[in-house]
C-alpha cells in the first residue's frame, strides 16, 4: 500500500473536520477495486469488440435493441456479483465526521447505496433500474431472471414500448433535479472529495470547478492525475480503496 504524504493526509482530515458540508464526487475508479472495470478501461471478454461509446447511445439501442439490452443485462449480473470495496465503506464512515455528507456519483452500479451511504445523487442513473423507451414507466431493481426467456428487450406491461436501462446515454440530458441539487451542493460545500474520475464527461466534470470557484476545498483521490487535477488543491495519489480508509483512520485519532 502506498503511504500518503503525512502532511497532505493531515490537511485533508483537518479540512473534513472543519467542514459543515462535505460532498464526495465519484467516478468509475471508486468501483475499480470491486472488480467493475472503469469506463475507459478496455472492455473485457465477449464485449471487448464493442465500443461502449456506441452501445451507450439512443442510436446504438435503436440500431440493435437486443444487443444493447444484453450488454446491460451482462453488466447488471456483473454488478450484482460484486461488492462495495473499502473505498465505498470509508465514504460511508465519513458520514460520522462530516457535518452533512452527500455522495454525487457518475456511477450506475448502486454500490454507494449498498455500502450504506445515506445521501446519494446518481447523476447518470442506475443500471439495475429499467424504464420504457419514452421513460414514463419505471421498473426499479429489475431482475433479468424474472423476465424469463421472452423477446429482448422486454416490452413495457403498461404501454407496450421497448424497455431500456434507466441510465443516461451519451447525448442525453442528465436528470434535471439531480443536476440542480448537485450544483447547489457544489456551490455550498466546505470540502469536495473527487474520487476516481477522469473528469472527461460534462456536465458532471464541472462540479469540482463550481466547488472550487465557490470557495470549497477540493481534494482529488486517484492513482494518476486527471482533468480535475488542476482544479484540486491537491491530489492524494493512490487507489481509493487504500487512500479513503487512511483518511478515516486519521480522523479516528
Ligand atoms: P473513467 O473510466 O473515465 O475514469 C476512471 C478514473 O478512475 C481514471 O481517472 C482512473 O485513473 C481512476 N482510477 C482507476 N482505478 C482507480 C482506483 N482504484 N481508485 C481511484 N481511482 C481509480 O470513468 P469516469 O470518470 O467515471 O458516463 O467516466 C465518467 C463518465 O464517462 C461515466 O459516468 C460514463 C462515461 O461516459 C455516462 O455513462 C453518461
List keywords for this structure.
Rossmann fold; elongated; 6-stranded parallel sheet; binds 2'-O-acetyl adenosine-5-diphosphoribose; 10 helices; 35% helix; alpha/beta; SIR2/SIRT2 'Small Domain'; 253 residues; 2 domains; 3-stranded antiparallel sheet
Question: What can you tell me about this protein's structure?
Answer:
This protein has 253 residues and is of the alpha/beta class. The chain folds into two domains: 1-35 and 84-124 and 174-253, TPP-binding domain (Rossmann fold); 37-81 and 127-167, SIR2/SIRT2 'Small Domain' (2-Layer Sandwich), CATH 3.30.1600.10. It is 35% helix and 18% strand. It has ten helices and nine strands. It has helices spanning 6-18, 29-32, 52-55, 58-63, 65-81, 86-94, 111-115, 176-186, 207-213, 240-252; strands at residues 21-26, 100-105, 120-122, 125-132, 138-139, 163-167, 191-195, 217-222, 234-237. The strands form two sheets. Strands 3-2-1-7-8-9 form a six-stranded parallel β-sheet, sandwiched between helices. Helix 1 crosses helix 10 (240-252). The radius of gyration is 19 Å and the shape is elongated. It starts with 5 loop residues before the first helix and ends with a helix. The mean pLDDT is 93. Bound molecules: 2'-O-acetyl adenosine-5-diphosphoribose. 2'-O-acetyl adenosine-5-diphosphoribose binds at residues 27-29, 32-33, 38-40, 56, 106, 124, 168, 196-198, 200-201, 222-224, 226, 239-241.
Amino acid at each position: 500500500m502506498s503511504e500518503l504524504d503525512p502532511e497532505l493526509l493531515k490537511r485533508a482530515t483537518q479540512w473534513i473536520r472543519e467542514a459543515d458540508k462535505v460532498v464526495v464526487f465519484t467516478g468509475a475508479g471508486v468501483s475499480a477495486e470491486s472488480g467493475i472495470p472503469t469506463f475507459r478501461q478496455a472492455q473485457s471478454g465477449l464485449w471487448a469488440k464493442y465500443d461502449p461509446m456506441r452501445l451507450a447511445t439512443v442510436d446504438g439501442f435503436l440500431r440493435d435493441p437486443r444487443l444493447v439490452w444484453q450488454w446491460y443485462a451482462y453488466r447488471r449480473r456483473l454488478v450484482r456479483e460484486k461488492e462495495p470495496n473499502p473505498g465505498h465503506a470509508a465514504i460511508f464512515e465519513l458520514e460520522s465526521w462530516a457535518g452533512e455528507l452527500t455522495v454525487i456519483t457518475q456511477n450506475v452500479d448502486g454500490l454507494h447505496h449498498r455500502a450504506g451511504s445515506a445521501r446519494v445523487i446518481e447523476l447518470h442513473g442506475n443500471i439495475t433500474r429499467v424504464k420504457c423507451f419514452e421513460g414514463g414507466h419505471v421498473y426499479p431493481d429489475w431482475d433479468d431472471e424474472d423476465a424469463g426467456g421472452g423477446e429482448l428487450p422486454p416490452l413495457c406491461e403498461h404501454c407496450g414500448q421497448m424497455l431500456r436501462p434507466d441510465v443516461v446515454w451519451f447525448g442525453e440530458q442528465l436528470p434535471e433535479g439531480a443536476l440542480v441539487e448537485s450544483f447547489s451542493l457544489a456551490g455550498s460545500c466546505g470540502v469536495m472529495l473527487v474520487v476516481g474520475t477522469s473528469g472527461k464527461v460534462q456536465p458532471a466534470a464541472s462540479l469540482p470547478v463550481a466547488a472550487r470557484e465557490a470557495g470549497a476545498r477540493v481534494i482529488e483521490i486517484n492513482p494518476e492525475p486527471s482533468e480535475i487535477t488542476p482544479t484540486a488543491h491537491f491530489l492524494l495519489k493512490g487507489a481509493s480503496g487504500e487512500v479513503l480508509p487512511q483518511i478515516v483512520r486519521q480522523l479516528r485519532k
